Amino acid sequence: MNIIINKQVIPPGYQSPEDYILNSTTAYDSGFRLISSNKKNINMDVIYENTYNIKRDGNIYLQKEVWVPKNGNIYTVIYTQKMVSSDPPSPWMILVPPPIWKS
Question: In terms of CATH, what superfamily is 2-84?
Answer without folding.
Answer: Mog1/PsbP, alpha/beta/alpha sandwich (3.40.1000.10)
